[in-house]
């Protein structure tokens, strides 16, 4: 590529309308590369960001193109810094529920130093992009490890939930048995109280009958002695 073409490409701003754009956000024109506007695409994309050498211009990325996107990079860095500060204080990412038991640390949790990239050179921007790619890669690795750990813990929680459900079922069965046995004990207790009342009543009747019999026996015995004494006296008189 000649010097005139380079200068011409340098003076032209990067625009999404200059050349067709692929689905991954990289333009296919000579030396034109657009940044992905969605940070989620950068964080969770399987494809690595295209370098200037892989673009159509083979290292002919325009300096003005990087400067035209410096405001976007600054905004992303500022947002990353604010999110990192909030996550370092609370241990939680914005928009996620509060978890006071345990905080997860990823590579993106480290505070990033935001700087003005308006006067940055191409080499500095490439270094910054490479650094951000390393951070994203490390974050993906940390997220994979955390995902595997949470999956294993979820399995343990499911197993524990099944065991708790089984024990809860056993407790329900035992509670029913206890209720049934309690009802039986109450019935037996009522029967015992009724039998004790009847026995006490019968005992009173028996004692009253015994007293009456003893009184009659004493009366008969007294009459017998009186009769015996009378007969003995008559016999002596007759003799």
From TrEMBL:
Any GO CC annotation of this UniProt entry: extracellular region
Region (Disordered): 1-62, 78-100
Molecular-function GO term, any one: hormone activity
Pfam families registered for this protein in UniProt: ELH
Signal peptide: none
Superkingdom of the source species: Eukaryota
Biased composition (Polar residues): 84-96
Protein family: Belongs to the molluscan ELH family.
Protein name as catalogued: Uncharacterized protein
Organism encoding this protein: Phaeodactylum tricornutum (strain CCAP 1055/1)
Taxonomic lineage: Eukaryota, Sar, Stramenopiles, Ochrophyta, Bacillariophyta
